[in-house]
Design goal:
Two copies of one chain form a homodimer.
Chain A (H helix, E strand, L loop, with lengths): L2 H20 L14 H5 L11 H12 L21 H12 L11 H17 L13 E5 L2 H20 L5 H14 E6 L5 H9 L2 E5 L11 H13 L3 E8 L11 H11 L9 E5 L24 E5 H4 L7 E5 L2 H8 L9 H5 L18 H35 L5 E8 L2 E6 L6 H18 L5 E5 L2 E7 L7 H19 L11
Parallel strand pairs in A: 2-3, 2-4, 4-5, 5-6
Antiparallel strand pairs in A: 1-7, 6-7, 8-9, 9-11, 10-11
């Protein structure tokens, strides 16, 4: 494909993408292909001779589109959004054109420096304490996902804990102590924390223990529950070294009691003392709301914590992946993750004047992801981003208010919080089992029909439905439509009169 | 930015990218900005009001370009290439448009299914044994980088080893045994293996030991050296559980003696028996050459190994990132990396009929990276990819032949192998110290002048220069130019007549 062919191909691709976005609401939001659909319609190997772009492009609509679940559709109200935007796409395009696995500063200084700068912009925009800025001892780094970020900081926390708590030992005694401690290390997170913490513990080779939450505290981690778990761990000879605390849990967007967490830890594992517990704030989704002053009080305790992560690729108009991780002490990452073979040595790295982000992450190579963040921040501006968040918060309230108009059908379990409403279906005959059963039936029927796509979750044992109104294309009409579908489907299921209208759109 | 504005912006971006590629050879290949250059010319925060695309785009040429090291320039002969291509960029563009962190099959079935299919295509194209296909017990998965792939399989190997060697125990005895074994686990790789294995060991919390290589065996891992290390480990009470073996080492593109590795392991840690050593083949760069039948004999022993990884983003025309990891038993990955909270449950995953790639990797979410691989394989076709590789192999021979014409200035240390030539500079007065010194001086002066960009490496204690001729835009004229520059610079340095011509282009 030469320059001329690329221009034609790209123009055609841009047209197709624009048309896709302009008409996306007409597509069935969740794919209804059967597992294995694609293998049946693709050849068993690559072609011997190259093919023309027109032939390749034609397959996108006919073969790929049927298998897509359209996360950008305004009818997508599942999980959390994965918001894309046009400036984000332009960033991705330039990033591909400038391809460079910029593991060192000299590999492409702009890749490193723009990342440092836009992450400092973002830290200020989100009202993070100054200690998270690169101009102090901290700084930000773009990771692929919030789960990758958690593994990264957990490994740093593990090695820091082991190093600091055994620094008085040497030789065989040191080795034995580390071996023993390794087997006793435990990472903590509330029951409502994302499963990424448990997975990170598996990867780091440490234990995981979850701290119970309850409806009474709106599914948020409390100081009491943390204290209780710390005591239990101690009684069992375990050594807690890491805690994930969440700003906007996956199931209900609960916000943990950060002040209480800081206060309990100050008592049980004082900061800046060997044995301190690394506290990571997982704000993957709801952290985006911190661009609005009315949410910025939530960061008040963060100066006592160690790391913070927010995904611009969820609610802040930047296509996946753009997980923004901030640490208070970059040295902790570098101590754990730096390896320096001769072919990576260079005068700039040796000088200590530059940042080599490979030491802040698991992979060596990295993409130029700060470009898209830069484009998004500049295209929308601070006011544009605030308006974007506030619109969705408002839509969440509209939806929750609609749900409240039908107490005969729905009970709100939680929210609206950060544009998420969580509710259960009222069964014909009261009882938890009946409630779980009908909630599940309604959920499954709604998704099977595919006019909207929502998720369910089991929260403190209760089966509930989640509707998120923070899709970039979300509008009141779509939330009203979702409400109508939920009412109709619930009435059908309650009355045992399910109408077969599969694949209706 | 609405549809219309995006069309205009994208058209303008495409024009800029085409122009960038058409004139890239005229740019200084390695950036010569000073550390911190960008902060001086950017504002200290994002704008309050959104900006127009024209203003943003203008900053790319004026502010970003000076800080780029142009990996796509034909004058880039450093590290290994990070090859981009127009079809790859189109894939990235669609991937951004279809943004979906497709962690489950139902999140976007096409994302999962296309990945399985193109990785099966690739496995066959590379002549991997059938056990690495998804149609058997294996399969491929796209990772971000070869280093990420190594962490992923090392964690799987660690957990498999611990599980299988302690399966006869229970209770406290099991816990003690695992704690003890954890402290004794050691991952192996040759001295010439990429530092990613050492870093993976740090992340997985295990020891790392490197196996010596020597010039006599052309810096490849031998069976004897492996056997010796295994015996030493045993004598020290260590438990080797993982070995990285390399097809194309970073420094010299050495190929380990796979048959000998298989044979030594069959004796010391028999496969399919508890305590077997997981063998990972790191073919990050040179694995691309397996698309040519003349290299396919190299895969003969891979049926005895456990995983294989090759980066399409190095030498196979796909922009970073596209690291293709294949495993012989996908169950090993899933056993180590699966976590299943309620909000990720769905009927499709529960059915076992679909692949959930989140269980094959560290992160949860994932991009639609198979699109660009699909576009590249189809645009070039098998023959096009073979021609691409063979052209570069040939250019490597041309360059090495040039180097050989000046034995008074250069001594080839290794190669040409897979388009890489490694050589040292002949000092005026013989001696290792003088040779290392002048090699370093020539290397630094060449890169400082920035007409070409090359890398150096220390190989078995010898300081050497590396020239790689596998850049997508590589042509004989650029290799001849590189040779001329090396001759002139060497003569200047040898004669102590370094001319100041910094920033000459």
């Amino acid at each position: 494909m030469d320059s001329k062919q690329f221009k034609e191909a790209a123009t055609s691709a841009i047209d197709e993408i624009v048309n896709y976005y302009d008409t996306i609401e007409n597509r069935r939001v969740v794919s209804n292909v059967e597992p294995g659909y694609l293998r049946k319609i693709l050849p068993s190997g690559p072609p011997e001779e190259g093919e023309a772009w027109a032939d390749i492009q034609a397959d996108i609509e006919t073969k790929i589109m049927p298998g897509l679940t359209h996360w950008q559709s305004p009818n997508f109200m599942a999980f959390f959004p994965a918001s894309s935007s046009f400036p984000g796409m332009l960033g991705e395009l330039y990033s591909a054109a400038f391809t460079a696995p910029a593991f060192n500063w000299i590999c492409s200084p702009a890749v490193t420096e723009l990342e440092t700068i836009v992450l400092d912009w973002l830290a200020k925009l989100l009202n993070l304490p100054e200690c998270y800025l690169s101009t102090t001892h901290g700084g930000g780094v773009i990771q692929g996902s919030a789960s990758e970020a958690i593994v990264t900081v957990m490994v740093a926390a593990r090695d820091k804990y082991l190093r600091e708590t055994t620094s008085h030992l040497s030789g065989l005694e040191l080795e034995d102590s580390i071996a023993h401690k390794r087997s006793k290390l435990v990472a903590l997170g509330s029951e409502a924390a994302h499963s990424a913490t448990q997975k990170a513990a598996q990867i780091a080779g440490v234990r995981f223990r979850s701290i119970p939450v309850s409806k009474e505290s709106n599914f948020a981690l409390t100081g009491e529950a943390l204290e209780e778990t710390l005591k239990q761990c101690k009684a069992e000879g375990l050594e807690p070294f890491f805690l994930t605390t969440t700003l906007g849990t996956t199931a209900t967007c609960a916000v943990d009691d950060f002040a209480a967490v800081a206060s309990v830890l100050a008592k049980h594992a004082p900061p800046n003392v060997p044995g301190e517990i690394w506290v990571h704030v997982d704000a993957a989704y709801a952290g985006a709301a911190l661009v609005c002053p009315e949410y910025q009080h939530l960061t008040a305790s963060f100066e006592h914590f160690h790391s913070f992560d927010m995904n611009m690729h969820k609610w802040l108009l930047t296509n996946f992946d753009a997980s923004c991780l901030f640490v208070r002490r970059r040295k902790d990452l570098i101590d754990a993750l730096s390896v320096m073979p001769s072919y990576l040595r260079n005068e700039f790295s040796d000088s200590g004047l530059v940042t080599d982000y490979r030491d802040w992450q698991i992979p060596l190579g990295r993409r130029f992801r700060s470009l898209k963040i830069w484009f998004v921040l500049r295209t929308y501006g601070v006011k544009g981003l605030q308006a974007h968040i506030r619109k969705h918060i408002k839509l969440g309230e509209v939806f929750a208010d609609l749900i409240k108009t039908r107490p005969d059908l729905f009970t709100i379990l939680s929210g609206p919080a950060f544009a998420l409403t969580v509710f259960t279906i009222v069964p014909k005959t009261a009882g938890k089992e009946a409630q779980d059963q009908i909630s599940k039936e309604v959920y499954e029927l709604v998704n099977k029909r595919g006019e909207i796509f929502i998720t369910s979750s089991v929260i403190a044992g209760i089966y509930a439905l989640r509707v998120v109104s923070s899709n970039p294309l979300a509008e009141e009409q779509f939330l009203r439509k979702a409400f109508r579908i939920l009412v109709e489907t619930t009435e059908e299921v309650r009355d045992g009169k399910v109408i077969t209208k599969e694949n209706s759109i």
